[in-house]
Design brief:
The structure holds two protein chains of two kinds. By secondary structure, chain A is mainly α. The N and C termini of chain A lie far apart (49 Å). The longest helix of chain A has 30 residues. By secondary structure, chain B is α/β, with parallel strands linked by helices. In chain B, strand 4 and strand 5 form a beta hairpin. In chain B, helix 8 packs across helix 17 and helix 14 runs parallel beside helix 15. Chain B is globular, with a radius of gyration of 25 Å. Classes of the chains: A mainly alpha, B alpha/beta. Chains A and B meet through helix 11, helix 12 and helix 18 of A and helix 1, helix 10, helix 11 and strand 18 of B.
Amino acid sequence: MPGLRGLWDRYRSASPVTIALLALVLGLVVGAVIIVATTPAILNAWRGAFHSWGAPGHALKVTFDNVGAAYRSIFTGSIVDPPQFWHSVTTGKGWTASLTPLSETLTYAIPLVIASIAVGITFQTGLFNIGANGQAILGGVAGVAVATLVHLPMALHLPLTLLAGIAGGVVGGAIPGLLKAYTGAHEVIVTLMFNYVASYFMLFCLLSTPLQLPDQTNAISRTMPGGTQLAPLFGTASGLRVNYGIVVALAVTLFAIWLLDRSSIGFEFRVTGANPHAARASGINARRTLVTSFLISGGLAGLAGVTWVAGTTHYIDQNFLQGSAGIGFTAITVSLLGRNRPIGIVWGSLLFAALEVGGSNMQANTGIPYDLATVIQSAIVIFVATPVLVKEIFRLRALRAESVKVATAGWGS
Amino acid sequence: MRLELRGITKKFGSLTANDHIDLVVEPGQIHCLLGENGAGKSTLMNVLFGLLQADEGEILIDGQPVRLANSGDAVRRGIGMVHQHFMLVPVFSVAENVVLGFEPTRSLDRLDYARAREDIRSVSREFGLEVDPDATVESLPIGLQQRVEIIKALGHDAQLLILDEPTAVLTPQEADALMAIMRSLAASGKSILFISHKLKEVRQVSDVITVIRAGRVIGSVPPTSSESELAAMMVGREVSLVVEKAAATPREPVLEVRDLVVRDDRGLAVVDGVSLEVRAGEIVALAGVQGNGQTELVEAITGLRHVESGTVLLGGRDITNRSPREILDAGLGHIPEDRQRDGVVLSMSVADNMVLNTPRRAPFARRGTRNLAAVRDNAETLVESFDVRTSSVDAPLSSLSGGNQQKVIVARELSRPLEALVASQPTRGLDVGSIEYVHREIVRVRDEGHAVLIVSSELDEVMALGDRVAVMFQGRVTGVVDPSTSREDVGLLMAGSAPAGSR
């Protein structure tokens, strides 16, 4: 059976894909443990479990029922509800309800893919862009400004709106990039703090400039005219929110694949990220590389922001990408999950978006708080970040050669 | 304390860092361990201090075999270590640093600073280690920071003190003061194991000198041995190398260095007025004990270090202080001293490493897009013609042996248009087969009419490869001699004294 043997060997050799899948499994296990520990019904069942014959079996059943219901509603809420889907197939009715879960997951995944690729590009250059959220906010603000304050035919207006979003993000990326290149300021601090600057700049724009919806005292922008919106993919009548932003996300993914795998500048990014000493000795201009990396990253983060606004809400208010829920922060973990590679990031974004969307459905159906989805997301990232732990748990083959190298690097004279 | 090491062996993968090392340090003795960078000194000290476990052999303290599983064990057995890079908390005071990890406390777990200060003062008085207990460490000059390290080691009642290249970071005055301290420590019965590659100070302060090379003890000699004897022991090779090459036919000068002054990271002029000329069709070998400015000279030539004054010409063009990119494009090939740090990206494929410094050049890229087929073809050809042993050109470079990694660099540098080649320690850490190969390639480059500058601390390599041998000592070229010059005379130049007949 060479086929099975091959599969087994691949599993044992701990490829990044295997690790990611096993991390997902472990993340779900962690989630299940938390469900057990926080659901009164399960706890009560176990409290009585040793008082009578048959009670332990009952407790087990309660446990599996609850955990099963929770994970089932995450699945049906984010991908597909099989009975509903079968109903649509057989009767031809209710397609909106059948496709809404997938549509919602894709809608959330669109800006996440773009923002995570933005972050991944700096990671590949050995830089940390913790400011993708601020850059996305600037992109959103700039995009809404061009969409609502400029009047143009649609063929020009939509592209210009997206370009404005990129430009807003580029400004946000240029600041930490130039500061690091010319003054040595640490990009983590600058980008992290810049998120606040961007947030308050947005509030300023929404309260004190023509961007604010007329006759309003709240921080809310004008609505983007129809010609600048990324229209729903299946028309407004379909009731499905998934929009043409998916084309933007696809284009960004293809661009990132070209940039990182095929372009000369991307090669220089990767050399710089993997070994800055060798990069310098090979004649790579460190300053130019890091500034370029930040400009591209910022521009894409800005595009993520404008894509979200143009595809879903069509206006921004004070809640736009605020706080730790901002996609710019989720993007950091998604990028790590996808090992900073475009294809990996697409899968990671889909997974995170599905947990996000499915989590809401779980809360609605079972009463288990939505935050459990965040816990699962976090657990997955922790497991992906500690492959040694995953290998140990699943008894995968250890990479001996590597550990020897670490020892030599540490103590070689 | 009497310390004895018996047959200590430590291996890292295929590399034997320590090969059956025997060593005895008597009480009150200053014992010097002399050897070049990479000879295995630091590994041995880390074994002795419990930071690494030996694969074979045993450590005896006062005749009793001991097991040192970690540095805490070593400290309890009375061994103190002063690392080359200080292990101090810069923002803490001297007193806080000294007690760190063994804090004296009063009731309620309050730190007893008064006692810490008093302890420091008594150690200071006893051994002449003057330092203010209340000064913050970062405000102290390096020499005083080192004293804090020594006081810290002594504070744990060390009977044997290991000093790992203690003078590497010191000014000459600070080094003199340190040696006085070492003598007073020894006079009070403490044993000192002193690691260095500086011949002069070793002879000044040691009672016994043990030379190690390539992980083996070459021999123990008294400090009355001459510097040239010590230099030859340090850098010589047991198997004499023969490189087959025809007589050189040098033509016009290609690489010219004039009155070059370069400062190191501490601001000391480590290259202090060097002039050197390498002509087309000749190999100039730069000899010298490591740490005499060779590294910085090469960094300055290749654009990696700022030139303070003087000029570097390549083919008549001024390349002084130009960017590494411009210098590479001007036709300077560079085989760096630390190949894994500066020469390759271990996580990238063999093919990518083959174009590491020419990624934008045709046919490897066109208008910003790489031509991966051309990159692979190039790598296939080079792997074939330079006999690189790899499973595939797509394999990560880290999967290759050290010798084959070096072959990748050699192949890359020799496959692009060259005016001159600068190779630093081109065969360090390689097996005999690879050494022979690299040497043949270097001679081939010369025979094709290029200028070649080799920097090596292997005396045999220098003598075998060089058409002319330049010797560097303390930032200056102390002589340029014919490779037929005797090893003793070259050894004298390496030790800074000019033999008769050199120019």
